[in-house]
Write a structure and sequence with these properties.
Layout: H1 2-17, E1 19-22, E2 33-36, H2 38-61, H3 68-84, H4 88-106, H5 112-143, H6 159-176, H7 185-191, H8 194-216, H9 227-250, H10 254-271, H11 281-312, H12 330-333, H13 335-349, H14 355-369, H15 373-397, H16 421-435, H17 437-442, H18 456-462, H19 468-493, H20 499-509
Antiparallel strand pairs: 1-2
Helix pairs in contact: 1-2, 2-3, 2-8, 2-11, 2-16, 3-4, 3-8, 4-5, 4-8, 5-6, 5-7, 6-8, 7-8, 7-10, 8-11, 9-10, 9-15, 10-11, 10-15, 11-13, 11-14, 11-16, 11-18, 13-15, 13-16, 14-15, 14-16, 15-20, 19-20
Length: about 500
C-alpha cells in the first residue's frame, strides 16, 4: 500500500517533466541521483502490482515458514533501485543485488535440481555482471561521467564507445535470457517455487530490457549508425520466439512449458528494436510497454496458478514435476484456478481483449508502417505457435479423466482463497489492460520520456496523444471479430471428441 501511495504521489511532478532527486543533496558526480520518468514509472507500477500479489500469495504458500520474505523485500528494493538510478554504477550495484536475491529465491526449494539450476543461474549472472561492469569502466574512461545522459550526447560512433556499448549490451542480453544465451532460464524458473518463479519471470528479466531501452533508444536518433544492430536484435528476437515456442511444444511439465514461454516472449520484446528507426517509433515503444505489462501480469498469474495446483496435491507433486496431464479435471475441482490459467493464456497468446493483444497490435502497426514485412510474418507465426503450446494446459483442465490431483482425498484438494485470489487478480489485470488501454497509456506521463535523462526523440514522440483514441477504437472494432473468426475456423476442423480443446478455444474467443 505504501508503494502504491508513493507512485500516485509521483504522477503530478512527472506529468510536467520527470523528477530528479540527489540523495543527501550531493551533486550527481559525487552522490547518488534518482530519476523517475514515464518509462520507469510504468515498470514501478508493474512491480508494485506483481510484488503485492506475490507477497499475499506467499503468506499462505510458505506457511508457517516465512524465510521467503527477506529475499522478496531485497529483490523488490533492488528492482526499484535499478529502475530509479540515474547513473550506470549505481545501476550495476542494484543489478548485483537483484541477481543475488533472484539466485537465492531460485534455490529456495532446497532440492538438488533447484540448487543446480540456481548455481548455473549464478555463474551466468556473474559473467553478465562482469561484462556490464567492464563496459561501465570504459565509458567512465571515455567521458569521465556515468550519467545516463551521456547516451544522448554525440560521439556514440567512437570505436571505444562502440566497444563499451557492446559490452553493456552483451551483459544485459545474458541477464535478459535472450536466445542463444537463455540456457539458465528454463531450469531456474521451472525448479523454483511458484512465488519465486513468478518474480523471476515477471520482473527480474524486465530490468535488463529496461536498461537496454535506456542505452539504445537515444542511439536511434543517430540515424543509420545502429540500424544494423537493431535489425540484429530483431533477428535474435525472432529466433527466440521460434526456439522457445518449439521447446514449449515438447514440454510435458507445466512449469517447464511456462519457462520456455518466457524465452519466446522475450523475443517479442526485442522485435521492437528494428522498429525504433522506422517512421513510427512512438507506436513501437507503446506496443513494447503494453507487451511488458501484459506478460508480467499474465506470466506471474500462470506460475502462481501452477503453484496452487501443485499445492493442492498435498505435496505429492514436486514443484517442477507438475505435468500437463495432471491438470485433467481441474476446471471442476478448482474453477478459479482454471479460470486464472485460461485468462493468462488469452493474454500471453495475444488474443483480444487482453493487454497482450494491444501490444502486438501496435507492433504490427509499426512494422507495416515501416514496410518490415518479415517482422509482420514473425509476429503472426509466433502467435500461432503460442496458440499451439499455450492451449495445451488449458485444454487439459477441461478433460474428464481423473488424476492424482483431481481425484485425491478431499483434504488434499482444499485450497484456501489466499492461494487463488492473488493470481486471479493478476490475470484479470492483464485482461483489463486491453479493455482500457487509454487509461493504461495515461499512466505514462508526457514529460517522462523526454527529460534530460529520458529516451530522446523517439521517446518524445511516444506521447503523441492525438492518435490514441482512434487507435483504440480500431482495436475494439476490428481486432475481436478477426480473432473470433480464426478461432471459429480452428474449432470447426477439430474432431467432436476433442472436448477439452473445443471448450478452451470457446473460452478464449468469448467476448470480453
Amino acid at each position: 500500500m505504501t508503494a502504491l501511495v508513493g507512485l500516485l504521489a509521483l504522477l503530478t511532478p512527472l506529468a510536467a517533466d520527470g523528477f530528479f532527486y540527489p540523495l543527501g543533496g550531493w551533486p550527481a558526480e559525487l552522490g547518488i541521483g534518482l530519476r523517475a520518468d514515464g518509462l520507469n514509472l510504468w515498470l514501478l507500477w508493474l512491480g508494485a502490482a506483481v510484488n503485492g500479489a506475490v507477497g499475499l500469495y506467499a503468506w499462505r504458500y510458505f506457511a508457517p515458514r516465512h524465510y521467503f520474505y527477506p529475499l522478496w523485500l531485497l529483490l523488490w528494493a533492488a528492482y526499484n533501485g535499478a529502475l530509479l538510478s540515474a547513473d550506470l554504477f549505481n545501476i550495476y550495484v542494484n543489478l548485483e543485488l537483484l541477481g543475488l536475491a533472484a539466485v537465492c529465491l531460485a534455490a529456495l526449494d532446497g532440492k538438488s535440481d533447484a540448487r543446480r539450476a540456481a548455481l548455473r543461474y549464478l555463474l551466468l549472472n556473474l559473467f553478465g555482471s562482469l561484462t556490464f561492469l567492464l563496459g561501465v569502466v570504459l565509458i567512465y574512461r571515455q567521458h569521465g561521467s556515468l550519467g545516463l545522459a551521456i547516451f544522448q550526447q554525440p560521439g556514440l560512433d567512437d570505436p571505444l564507445m562502440k566497444l563499451s556499448l557492446a559490452l553493456l549490451g552483451l551483459g544485459l542480453i545474458i541477464k535478459s535470457a535472450l536466445f542463444p544465451l537463455h540456457g539458465w532460464l528454463p531450469p531456474a524458473h521451472a525448479q523454483a517455487t511458484a512465488p519465486a518463479s513468478a518474480l523471476l519471470s515477471a520482473l527480474v528479466i524486465k530490468v535488463s530490457l529496461y536498461l537496454q531501452l535506456r542505452i539504445w533508444l537515444p542511439a536511434a536518433a543517430d540515424g543509420d549508425i545502429f540500424a544494423i544492430l537493431f535489425q540484429f536484435f530483431g533477428l535474435l528476437g525472432a529466433a527466440a520466439i521460434f526456439w522457445g515456442s518449439l521447446q514449449a511444444l515438447r514440454c510435458a511439465s507445466l512449469k517447464e512449458l511456462i519457462a520456455y514461454s518466457s524465452v519466446a516472449q522475450m523475443g517479442y520484446f526485442f522485435l521492437a528494436f528494428p522498429l525504433f528507426t522506422g517512421p513510427t517509433p512512438e507506436i513501437a515503444i507503446l506496443g513494447l510497454l503494453f507487451l511488458l505489462a501484459a506478460h508480467a501480469l499474465a506470466k506471474a498469474a500462470f506460475f502462481l496458478a501452477a503453484g496452487t495446483t501443485a499445492k493442492a496435491g498435498d505435496g505429492s507433486l514436486p514443484h517442477g514435476r507438475l505435468a500437463i496431464a495432471d491438470l485433467a479435471g481441474l476446471s471442476r475441482r478448482r474453477p478459479l484456478t482454471a479460470i486464472t490459467m485460461a485468462l493468462s493464456v488469452v493474454s500471453l497468446m495475444g488474443m483480444p481483449p487482453s493487454g497482450g493483444f494491444v501490444g502486438k497490435w501496435y507492433l504490427l502497426q509499426a512494422a507495416m508502417a515501416g514496410a518490415q514485412w518479415w517482422l509482420v510474418a514473425v509476429l503472426l507465426s509466433g502467435s500461432l505457435l503460442g496458440v499451439a503450446y499455450l492451449l495445451r494446459p488449458v485444454a487439459a483442465t477441461f478433460t474428464r479423466r481423473e488424476t492424482a490431483i483431481s481425484a485425491g482425498p478431499v483434504e488434499s484438494r482444499t485450497v484456501l482463497w489466499a492461494l487463488e485470489l492473488p493470481p486471479l487478480a493478476l490475470a484479470l489485470a492483464a485482461i483489463l489492460l486491453g479493455l482500457f488501454p487509454g487509461v493504461a497509456a495515461w499512466s505514462i506521463p508526457g514529460g517522462g520520456l523526454a527529460g534530460p535523462d529520458g529516451l530522446g526523440p523517439a521517446g518524445r514522440r511516444t506521447m503523441n496523444r492525438s492518435s490514441k483514441p482512434a487507435d483504440h477504437q480500431r482495436l475494439a472494432a476490428g481486432g475481436h471479430p478477426l480473432s473470433s473468426f480464426i478461432v471459429g475456423i480452428i474449432i470447426f476442423f477439430l474432431r467432436e471428441e476433442s472436448v477439452g480443446w473445443r471448450t478452451a478455444l470457446n473460452l478464449g474467443a468469448a467476448p470480453g
